[in-house]
Amino acid sequence: xxxxxxxxxxxxxxxxxxxxxxxGKESSSDSNTGGTGGASSDTTxxxxxxxGEGGSITFMAPDWAIPTDDQLKAFTDxxxxxxxxxxxxxxxxxxxxVTAAAGGQAxxxxxxxxxxxxxxxxAADWLEPLDVSDEVKxxxxxxxxxxKDGNVLAIPYANDYRxxxxxxxxxxxxxxxxxxxxxxxxxxxxxxxxxxxxxxxxFALPLNAEEKTSTxxxxxxxxxxxxxxxxxxxxxxxxxxxxxxxxxxxxxDELVDPADKTSSGMDAYKRILSGSANFLTGPxxxxxxxxxxxxxxxxxxxxxxxxxxxxxxxxxxxALPEALGVTKFSENKDAAKKFIEWYTSxxxxxxxxxxxxxxxxxxxxxxxxxxxxKIQNAGAMMEQAELIASPFPGGVPSYYAEMSxxxxxxxxxxxxxxxxxxxxxxxxxxKVAELAAE
Amino acid sequence: xxxxxxxxxLLSPMILIMGVLVFYPIIATFSYSLKKWKLTAPNDIHMVGxxxxxxxxxxxxxxxxxxxxxxxxAVVVLLTTVLGFLTSIFLNIDVKWSGILLAVxxxxxxxxxxxxxxxxxxxxxxxxxxxxxxxxxxxxxxxPIEWLSSRWSLLLIVSLVVTWRSIPFTALVCLAGRQSIPxxxxxxxxxxxxxxxxxxxxxxxxLMLPFLAIGITSTSVTAINVFDEIIALSGYSDLGxxxxxxxxxxxxxxxDFGKGSAVTYLVMLFAGILGIFYLRSLNKEVEY
Lengths: 438, 288
Hints:
The complex is a heterodimer. Chain A is an alpha+beta fold. Chain A has two domains: about 35-160 and about 320-385, Periplasmic binding protein-like II (D-Maltodextrin-Binding Protein, domain 2, 3-Layer(aba) Sandwich), CATH 3.40.190.10; about 165-320 and about 400-435, Periplasmic binding protein-like II (D-Maltodextrin-Binding Protein, domain 2). In chain A, about 45% of the residues lie in helices and about 10% in strands. Chain A has helices spanning about 1-20, 70-80, 90-100, 120-125, 135-140, 170-175, 185-195, 210-225, 235-250, 265-275, 285-290, 335-345, 345-355, 365-370, 380-385, 400-415, 420-435, and strands at about 40-45, 55-60, 80-90, 110-115, 125-130, 145-150, 150, 155-160, 165, 280, 300-305, 320-325. In chain A, strand 2, helix 2 and strand 3 form a beta-alpha-beta unit. In chain A, helix 8 (about 210-225) crosses helix 9, helix 13 (about 345-355) crosses helix 14 (about 365-370) and helix 16 runs antiparallel to helix 17 (about 420-435). Chain B is an all-alpha fold. Chain B has one domain (about 60-280): Orthogonal Bundle (MetI-like fold). Chain B has a two-stranded antiparallel ribbon with strand order 1-2. In chain B, helix 3 packs across helix 11 (about 245-255), helix 4 packs across helix 7 (about 150-180) and helix 5 runs parallel beside helix 10 (about 230-235). The model of chain B has no long low-confidence stretch (mean pLDDT about 90). Classes of the chains: A alpha+beta, B mainly alpha. The interface of A and B includes residues 14, 18, 98 and 259 of A.
């Protein structure tokens, strides 16, 4: 009898526990819907945790986008909106968004939107259009990347456009007088640096099978020939093949470190910070890295310059910014929009540069920080920012991930000697054409 | 009547949990696999029957991944079984530090797979890897070897890394099996004049076969489901991708839930058939 009683109680308690686990009010501040793992942590701006008059929102972003507690408190004081921060690794955000949105759930009210995700998020109808003033539109060139069919889907908060860097001391050692103006000059100078024994592998080039390898080819073709994709979304053969052949030549002449073929793209970029590479076209974050003792062992030798072009300096550069958007499934859209407006305002961009070293997306703020000397060793940073343009004629396509995958795998095979540049181009062209036709 | 209901009542929570967490996803995944369902085309979701399966089975990418999976499976199962079995024999020897040795032998098993992959990437990195420093230091090579740059050397390294992580479990299961064999059997065999070899062949090996079957089944599932180590060593490169990476890319990178579910189903069927085959062929009763 006693055993039966215990068994019955056990069944009842288990059933009750399961029922409790399966039910519960779905609140926006509890929208961490799993995904593929990765570190995440939740913090709330308000100390008491009670709902403010202006409502509450959740904000999912990587560590570098998280405002300080004081900044969040100031926002809550100003608007009455409480912000629950969900700090998630950058790689995991897209997976979490996909998993939640596939089930019709909001992973958070405000989410990180990378430039490469915007096409697919738009096609999947996961982002709420945002209102942006004409003044901001004119001052924020990277906004174009997040605009589809006239709808602004996310507002960029961190600027990352392509800028070139070279080691001036190595140029002096090799008796090269002028900074390179064209890609042909970059190649010729790299050969001189190698031949004179100044630098064994002067060109930093990501060749591993990863995203950075595709984007490198895109901006190489873009800055070299001003075009990457045709209007129908297919690859522009003359431009892309020329860029591929340029990379192939660099590899054949051993101007690129063989380790770049298998190490991460960021490791390839970082070679310039140790002096093992002379030339890099890469992220704007290298402006500050090149002056930071913890990151750079050749401080004072790296100069940011305008990206080279075909016959003179390039007239365009590609941006790879990060933005914030509001998920379509959010139940707090107004509060979420207010948060993004605050976060991307001129004052906050200036503040975030100081606290998070974020490069402003508003050119006026960028100019102010450079003029005030808050961004050091800026070189051609401001001049280059004014040349930002998108290489995608119809915006970032919804099949970007699949296209990029085909591109980086073909480039990687070329780097490993399994394919020629022509074969690599044929492989990526076939895939891109198939995707564009779909 | 009560006696008939009570067992079902006691089983009902587990049946419910299994139903929700195991059987429902299996059925749901199968239904997804029969649809054209790309998240970037939310207005174009419809049933396509077995067309997703047909497209996958016709794709070169799938068969390339399948070949890689088979290679990893063969190497990992072979090495893990042999080395795990031998490790269990050594661990069964009663010495003063047996406990500590057992704990040390279990360490690789406790390591998260991604961390395991990163550790080995440091070893085989062409730029700063330990292995290159060793071969150059020993004069075996003049310049760094690109270990991870060719398909078969990459797959071999992935297999070795997974083997290193899998050996402890197989060793532990085999050790449990070895220690469950009654000492009386060995004594009787020795009295009957059996030498070490005969005793191993007629007593130890047959009685440990069911345990080896568990080890091999578990290792096979691990080898088919390798993901983290491949990503850590070669990223999302085509070079070393197996069918699990193919499934992940199709589903979560390319957002094609229809085809991704079909690949997942094929992986599950492959693992299931292999598991049944092992258990049926190795789990035989031994009588003396």
